[in-house]
């Protein structure tokens, strides 16, 4: 399938390839005359932001992350960081809201031998986003209280393309709606010397780890005394998703078939976020599995639960795939089982 990549320098290329005597409406025109279309820069939230009222674009965005750096600028440190599935926080109306899906983040600076021009960069991104059917939904400074509520770790503090939430620098947030469930968020923060961009696409996580059935759980417990399960919970919560309930039912089958079997249910997380919070979350998730099994009729004295946060990873937390392997529930066969 043909892949189209929209470059932010497109409008400038049109000028260079056209008759110089013919007047063109370009990114350069916008940079030189920012007041020519000042209404475009007004966040829609000031007019009562409602995502349901934002039109769906028919434009082809190309391949994620969709936007190259503007001409005469570069994404530094290898061109930014792209993840297949991540959690990115988007500020709208002062509230940092998580968006789950593919993500891209990068620092932007002037290319070698070029001068950084903040207004040029701002207008280049805005012109391209608007040309693709996008709108600005916010331009605001995120409060310290809101940053503290979410936590520095979840905001990628110090990571590639992270934002400065502590210097009263506003963040521009744009949205491109391709359908009710397919939405692209672009965040931009610039200063007089450099900038940062974060792009998040709302999407579904495509699980690559399959559900273990009851017979395999039993085989692992008999062979190794331990079974590793990947049970789906709501993000940053201990509530089981429907697929998680299905996994619990498989555990229930094993326990119901062998009434002498006693197990420890141990929760584990990856290293994303706050370590103390991860420890609590892992304990809560293990307890949720235990509670669900008790509700199905398993005697509570046959079950104990605990959590270890990110302290016992199966593999290094260096990729999203590895992190998915570390987010798990382990069943440990207790020694006093028959």
Describe the structure.
- The chain is an alpha+beta fold and 338 residues long.
- The chain has two domains: 10-201, no CATH class; 214-333, 2-Layer Sandwich (60s Ribosomal Protein L30, Chain: A).
- It is built from nine helices and eleven strands.
- The strands form two sheets. Strands 1, 2, 3, 4, 5, 6 and 7 form a seven-stranded antiparallel β-sheet that branches.
- The longest helix is centred in the last third of the chain and has 21 residues, at 275-295.
- It comes from Pedobacter psychrotolerans.
- It is found in: Cell outer membrane.
Instruction: Give the total of domains.
Output: 2
Strand content: 15-25%
Distance between the termini: 58 Å
Stretches where pLDDT falls below 50 for ≥5 residues?
Answer: 1-47
Q: Percent helix among the residues?
A: 25-40%
**What string gives the helices and strands in order?**
HHEHEEHEHEEEHEHEHEHE
Give the class from helix and strand content and strand pairing.
alpha+beta
Number of strands: 11
Mean pLDDT: 83
Largest sheet entry: 7 strands, antiparallel
Instruction: Please give the oligomerization state of what you see.
Output: single chain
Question: How would the global form be characterised?
Answer: elongated
Rg measurement, Å: 25 Å
Query: How many helices in DSSP terms?
Result: 9
List the helices and strands and how they pair.
Layout: H1 10-17, H2 27-32, E1 73-75, H3 76-79, E2 81-92, E3 95-110, H4 118-131, E4 135-140, H5 144-150, E5 171-179, E6 182-190, E7 195-201, H6 214-224, E8 226-229, H7 242-257, E9 263-268, H8 275-295, E10 303-307, H9 320-326, E11 328-333
Helix pairs in contact: 6-7
């Amino acid at each position: 399938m043909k892949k189209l990549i929209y470059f932010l320098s497109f409008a400038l290329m049109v000028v260079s390839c056209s008759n110089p005597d013919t007047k063109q409406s370009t990114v350069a025109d916008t940079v030189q005359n920012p007041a020519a279309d000042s209404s475009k820069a007004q966040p829609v939230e000031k007019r009562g932001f409602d995502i349901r009222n934002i039109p769906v674009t028919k434009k082809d965005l190309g391949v994620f992350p969709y936007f190259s750096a503007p001409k005469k600028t570069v994404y530094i440190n290898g061109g930014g960081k792209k993840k297949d599935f991540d959690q990115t926080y988007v500020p709208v109306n002062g509230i940092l809201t998580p968006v789950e899906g593919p993500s891209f983040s990068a620092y932007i600076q002037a290319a070698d031998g070029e001068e950084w021009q903040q207004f040029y960069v701002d207008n280049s991104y805005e012109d391209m986003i608007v040309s693709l059917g996008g709108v600005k939904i916010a331009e605001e400074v995120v409060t310290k209280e809101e940053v503290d509520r979410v936590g520095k770790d979840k905001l990628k503090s110090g990571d590639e393309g992270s934002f400065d939430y502590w210097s009263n620098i506003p963040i521009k947030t744009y949205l491109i709606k391709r359908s009710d469930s397919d939405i692209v968020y672009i965040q931009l923060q610039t200063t007089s010397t450099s900038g940062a961009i974060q792009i998040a696409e709302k999407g579904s996580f495509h699980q690559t780890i399959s559900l273990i059935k009851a017979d395999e759980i039993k085989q692992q417990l008999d062979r190794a005394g331990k079974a590793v399960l990947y049970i789906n919970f709501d993000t940053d919560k201990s509530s089981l998703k429907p697929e998680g309930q299905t996994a619990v039912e498989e555990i229930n089958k094993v326990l119901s078939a062998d009434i002498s079997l006693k197990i420890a249910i141990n929760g584990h997380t990856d290293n994303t976020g706050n370590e103390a919070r991860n420890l609590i979350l892992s304990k809560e998730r293990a307890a949720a599995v235990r509670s669900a099994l008790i509700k199905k009729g398993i005697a509570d004295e046959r079950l104990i639960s605990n959590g270890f946060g990110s302290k016992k990873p199966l593999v290094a937390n260096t990729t999203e795939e590895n992190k998915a392997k570390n987010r798990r529930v382990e069943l440990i066969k207790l020694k006093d089982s028959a």
